[in-house]
Amino acid sequence: MNKKVAALVGFWALAGCAELQQVVNQLPQSETIGSPEIAQGLQAALNAGIEKQVSKLAEENGFFGNERVKILLPEELRKVDNTLRDIGLSNLADEGLRILNRAAEDAVKEATPIFVDAVQNITFEDARAILLGADDAATNYLMQNTEQQLYTTFEPVIKESFTTVGADKVWSSLISQYNDLPFTRKVNPDLTDYVTREALEGVYTMIQIEEGNIRNNITSRTTTLLKKVFALQD
Predict the structure, then answer these.
(1) How far apart are CA 122 and CA 40, in angstroms?
(2) What is the DSSP letter of 35?
Protein backbone atom coordinates (compact mmCIF):
# COMPACT_ATOMS: atom_id res chain seq x y z
CA MET A 1 0.00 0.00 0.00
CA ASN A 2 1.50 3.38 -0.96
CA LYS A 3 1.93 6.37 1.32
CA LYS A 4 -1.16 8.07 -0.04
CA VAL A 5 -3.37 5.20 1.02
CA ALA A 6 -1.61 4.79 4.36
CA ALA A 7 -2.18 8.45 5.09
CA LEU A 8 -5.86 8.35 4.24
CA VAL A 9 -6.68 5.22 6.19
CA GLY A 10 -5.30 6.97 9.23
CA PHE A 11 -8.47 9.07 9.35
CA TRP A 12 -8.90 8.40 13.08
CA ALA A 13 -5.75 10.28 13.88
CA LEU A 14 -5.98 13.12 11.43
CA ALA A 15 -9.54 13.99 10.38
CA GLY A 16 -10.44 17.40 11.68
CA CYS A 17 -6.79 18.09 12.66
CA ALA A 18 -4.21 20.39 11.14
CA GLU A 19 -2.09 17.35 10.26
CA LEU A 20 -4.76 16.13 7.84
CA GLN A 21 -4.27 19.06 5.52
CA GLN A 22 -0.51 18.58 5.68
CA VAL A 23 -0.88 14.97 4.61
CA VAL A 24 -3.37 15.78 1.87
CA ASN A 25 -1.02 18.47 0.55
CA GLN A 26 1.71 15.84 0.13
CA LEU A 27 -0.39 13.57 -2.07
CA PRO A 28 0.40 13.62 -5.79
CA GLN A 29 -2.22 15.71 -7.52
CA SER A 30 -2.58 13.16 -10.30
CA GLU A 31 -3.81 10.51 -7.86
CA THR A 32 -7.46 10.54 -6.92
CA ILE A 33 -8.93 10.09 -3.47
CA GLY A 34 -11.28 7.47 -4.84
CA SER A 35 -9.06 4.41 -4.60
CA PRO A 36 -10.89 1.30 -3.33
CA GLU A 37 -7.87 0.77 -1.09
CA ILE A 38 -8.97 3.76 0.97
CA ALA A 39 -12.27 2.15 1.91
CA GLN A 40 -10.53 -1.15 2.56
CA GLY A 41 -8.02 0.46 4.86
CA LEU A 42 -10.75 2.37 6.64
CA GLN A 43 -12.71 -0.84 7.13
CA ALA A 44 -9.68 -2.46 8.72
CA ALA A 45 -9.19 0.46 11.10
CA LEU A 46 -12.88 0.49 12.06
CA ASN A 47 -12.97 -3.25 12.64
CA ALA A 48 -9.94 -3.06 14.91
CA GLY A 49 -11.48 -0.29 17.01
CA ILE A 50 -14.85 -2.03 17.23
CA GLU A 51 -13.30 -5.34 18.25
CA LYS A 52 -11.27 -3.66 20.98
CA GLN A 53 -14.17 -1.82 22.58
CA VAL A 54 -17.01 -4.30 22.04
CA SER A 55 -14.94 -7.14 23.46
CA LYS A 56 -14.28 -5.10 26.59
CA LEU A 57 -17.97 -4.39 27.13
CA ALA A 58 -18.86 -8.06 26.68
CA GLU A 59 -16.58 -9.11 29.53
CA GLU A 60 -17.82 -9.52 33.09
CA ASN A 61 -18.04 -6.03 34.57
CA GLY A 62 -17.63 -4.56 31.09
CA PHE A 63 -20.57 -2.29 31.91
CA PHE A 64 -20.83 -2.62 35.68
CA GLY A 65 -17.15 -1.79 36.23
CA ASN A 66 -17.00 1.08 33.74
CA GLU A 67 -18.31 4.36 35.11
CA ARG A 68 -18.62 5.80 31.60
CA VAL A 69 -21.32 3.30 30.64
CA LYS A 70 -22.50 1.69 33.88
CA ILE A 71 -26.26 1.33 33.73
CA LEU A 72 -28.11 2.95 36.60
CA LEU A 73 -31.81 2.95 37.32
CA PRO A 74 -34.00 5.26 35.26
CA GLU A 75 -34.13 8.73 36.75
CA GLU A 76 -37.66 8.28 38.05
CA LEU A 77 -36.65 5.09 39.89
CA ARG A 78 -33.41 6.23 41.47
CA LYS A 79 -35.35 7.14 44.57
CA VAL A 80 -35.89 3.39 44.96
CA ASP A 81 -32.15 2.82 45.02
CA ASN A 82 -31.51 5.74 47.35
CA THR A 83 -34.26 4.74 49.74
CA LEU A 84 -33.09 1.13 49.96
CA ARG A 85 -29.57 2.28 50.75
CA ASP A 86 -30.88 4.68 53.38
CA ILE A 87 -32.61 1.83 55.22
CA GLY A 88 -29.62 -0.52 55.10
CA LEU A 89 -30.41 -2.53 51.96
CA SER A 90 -27.39 -1.48 49.92
CA ASN A 91 -26.53 -5.07 49.04
CA LEU A 92 -29.93 -5.60 47.49
CA ALA A 93 -29.66 -2.34 45.57
CA ASP A 94 -26.18 -3.26 44.31
CA GLU A 95 -27.40 -6.66 43.17
CA GLY A 96 -30.25 -5.05 41.26
CA LEU A 97 -27.84 -2.77 39.39
CA ARG A 98 -25.41 -5.61 38.77
CA ILE A 99 -28.13 -7.65 37.09
CA LEU A 100 -29.03 -4.78 34.77
CA ASN A 101 -25.42 -4.48 33.69
CA ARG A 102 -24.89 -8.23 33.34
CA ALA A 103 -27.79 -8.33 30.90
CA ALA A 104 -26.14 -5.60 28.83
CA GLU A 105 -22.84 -7.48 28.87
CA ASP A 106 -24.60 -10.59 27.60
CA ALA A 107 -26.30 -8.67 24.81
CA VAL A 108 -23.16 -6.91 23.56
CA LYS A 109 -21.62 -10.29 22.72
CA GLU A 110 -24.01 -10.30 19.76
CA ALA A 111 -22.91 -6.90 18.44
CA THR A 112 -19.69 -7.60 16.56
CA PRO A 113 -21.18 -9.36 13.49
CA ILE A 114 -23.65 -6.51 13.04
CA PHE A 115 -20.87 -3.95 13.12
CA VAL A 116 -18.76 -6.04 10.75
CA ASP A 117 -21.60 -6.09 8.22
CA ALA A 118 -21.99 -2.31 8.47
CA VAL A 119 -18.26 -1.75 8.00
CA GLN A 120 -18.13 -4.07 4.99
CA ASN A 121 -20.80 -1.95 3.32
CA ILE A 122 -18.78 1.27 3.53
CA THR A 123 -18.57 2.85 0.09
CA PHE A 124 -15.88 5.21 -1.16
CA GLU A 125 -18.25 8.13 -0.58
CA ASP A 126 -18.82 6.96 3.00
CA ALA A 127 -15.08 6.58 3.54
CA ARG A 128 -14.29 10.06 2.28
CA ALA A 129 -17.09 11.60 4.39
CA ILE A 130 -15.75 9.85 7.49
CA LEU A 131 -12.15 10.70 6.67
CA LEU A 132 -12.87 14.39 6.22
CA GLY A 133 -15.73 14.59 8.72
CA ALA A 134 -16.10 15.55 12.36
CA ASP A 135 -14.29 13.85 15.22
CA ASP A 136 -17.23 11.47 15.71
CA ALA A 137 -17.96 10.86 12.03
CA ALA A 138 -17.16 7.14 12.18
CA THR A 139 -19.26 6.64 15.31
CA ASN A 140 -22.19 8.46 13.72
CA TYR A 141 -21.89 6.33 10.58
CA LEU A 142 -22.04 3.16 12.65
CA MET A 143 -24.95 4.44 14.71
CA GLN A 144 -26.98 5.28 11.63
CA ASN A 145 -26.33 1.89 10.09
CA THR A 146 -26.57 -0.44 13.08
CA GLU A 147 -28.81 1.04 15.78
CA GLN A 148 -32.11 -0.55 14.78
CA GLN A 149 -30.60 -3.96 14.14
CA LEU A 150 -28.68 -3.86 17.40
CA TYR A 151 -31.83 -2.99 19.31
CA THR A 152 -33.69 -5.89 17.71
CA THR A 153 -30.81 -8.20 18.60
CA PHE A 154 -30.16 -6.91 22.12
CA GLU A 155 -33.73 -6.78 23.42
CA PRO A 156 -34.50 -10.53 23.51
CA VAL A 157 -31.03 -11.32 24.88
CA ILE A 158 -31.52 -8.87 27.73
CA LYS A 159 -34.99 -10.22 28.42
CA GLU A 160 -33.65 -13.78 28.51
CA SER A 161 -30.76 -12.72 30.72
CA PHE A 162 -33.17 -11.24 33.23
CA THR A 163 -35.09 -14.51 33.28
CA THR A 164 -32.01 -16.73 33.51
CA VAL A 165 -30.46 -14.96 36.49
CA GLY A 166 -33.78 -14.45 38.23
CA ALA A 167 -33.83 -10.72 37.73
CA ASP A 168 -37.59 -10.76 37.86
CA LYS A 169 -37.39 -12.11 41.42
CA VAL A 170 -34.69 -9.63 42.47
CA TRP A 171 -36.60 -6.69 41.10
CA SER A 172 -39.86 -7.97 42.51
CA SER A 173 -38.24 -8.13 45.94
CA LEU A 174 -36.59 -4.74 45.54
CA ILE A 175 -39.69 -2.95 44.32
CA SER A 176 -42.06 -4.68 46.73
CA GLN A 177 -39.91 -3.64 49.68
CA TYR A 178 -39.88 -0.10 48.37
CA ASN A 179 -43.63 -0.11 47.77
CA ASP A 180 -44.21 -1.33 51.35
CA LEU A 181 -42.61 1.78 52.76
CA PRO A 182 -45.04 4.43 53.97
CA PHE A 183 -45.59 7.60 51.99
CA THR A 184 -43.99 6.27 48.79
CA ARG A 185 -45.44 6.42 45.34
CA LYS A 186 -45.88 2.86 44.08
CA VAL A 187 -43.78 1.87 41.07
CA ASN A 188 -43.89 -1.10 38.71
CA PRO A 189 -41.04 -0.75 36.21
CA ASP A 190 -40.46 -2.77 33.07
CA LEU A 191 -36.73 -2.33 32.54
CA THR A 192 -36.05 -4.43 29.43
CA ASP A 193 -36.47 -1.60 26.92
CA TYR A 194 -34.61 0.80 29.19
CA VAL A 195 -31.59 -1.50 29.60
CA THR A 196 -31.55 -2.25 25.87
CA ARG A 197 -31.31 1.43 25.02
CA GLU A 198 -28.70 2.03 27.72
CA ALA A 199 -26.64 -0.85 26.34
CA LEU A 200 -26.75 0.69 22.87
CA GLU A 201 -25.68 4.05 24.23
CA GLY A 202 -22.81 2.39 26.06
CA VAL A 203 -21.56 0.66 22.91
CA TYR A 204 -21.54 3.87 20.89
CA THR A 205 -19.97 5.79 23.78
CA MET A 206 -17.01 3.44 23.89
CA ILE A 207 -16.59 3.41 20.11
CA GLN A 208 -16.58 7.21 20.12
CA ILE A 209 -13.94 7.19 22.86
CA GLU A 210 -11.81 4.85 20.76
CA GLU A 211 -12.27 7.07 17.73
CA GLY A 212 -11.18 10.10 19.74
CA ASN A 213 -8.18 8.27 21.17
CA ILE A 214 -6.86 7.25 17.78
CA ARG A 215 -7.48 10.67 16.28
CA ASN A 216 -5.71 12.55 19.06
CA ASN A 217 -3.45 10.20 21.04
CA ILE A 218 -0.35 8.93 19.29
CA THR A 219 -0.04 5.96 21.68
CA SER A 220 -3.39 4.68 20.41
CA ARG A 221 -2.18 4.42 16.81
CA THR A 222 -1.18 0.81 17.14
CA THR A 223 -1.59 -0.42 13.58
CA THR A 224 1.05 -0.27 10.87
CA LEU A 225 -1.25 1.85 8.72
CA LEU A 226 -1.71 4.49 11.40
CA LYS A 227 2.01 4.62 12.15
CA LYS A 228 2.83 5.17 8.46
CA VAL A 229 0.75 8.35 8.51
CA PHE A 230 3.14 9.99 10.90
CA ALA A 231 6.20 8.73 9.05
CA LEU A 232 5.26 11.31 6.40
CA GLN A 233 6.05 14.09 8.85
CA ASP A 234 9.50 12.78 9.87
Answers:
(1) 9
(2) -
Domain spans of the chain, in order of start: 3-231
Q: For 164, how many CA atoms within 13 A lie in the half-sphere containing its CB?
A: 11
Instruction: Determine the Cα–Cα distance for residues 139 and 209; give it in Å rounded to an integer.
Output: 9
Cα dihedral 135/137/140/145 (nearest 10): -160
For 34, phi then psi, to 5°, come to: -90, 15
* Tens-digit pLDDT string for the chain (234 aa): 444 444 444 443 334 444 444 444 443 433 433 456 666 767 777 887 888 899 999 999 999 999 999 998 777 667 777 777 787 777 766 777 888 899 999 999 999 999 999 998 888 888 778 777 788 888 999 999 999 999 999 999 998 988 887 776 766 676 677 778 787 777 655 678 888 999 999 999 999 988 777 667 666 556 565 454 323 323
Quote the CA–CA distance of 210 and 194 in Å, as a whole number: 25
118-148: b (≥16 Cβ within 10 Å) or e: bbeebeeebbbbbbbbeebbbbbbbbebbee
Measured distance CA(64)–CA(7) in Å, rounded: 37
Those residues with Cβ within 8 angstroms of residue 55's Cβ, 6 or more apart along the chain or in another chain: 112
Cα atoms in the Cβ-side hemisphere of radius 13 Å centred on 18: 1
* Predicted TM-score of the model (pTM): 0.71
- Residues 57, 73: Cα–Cα separation, whole Å: 19
Per-position b or e across 22-53, b if 16+ CB within 10 A of its CB:
ebeeebeeeeeeebeebbebbbebbebbbebb
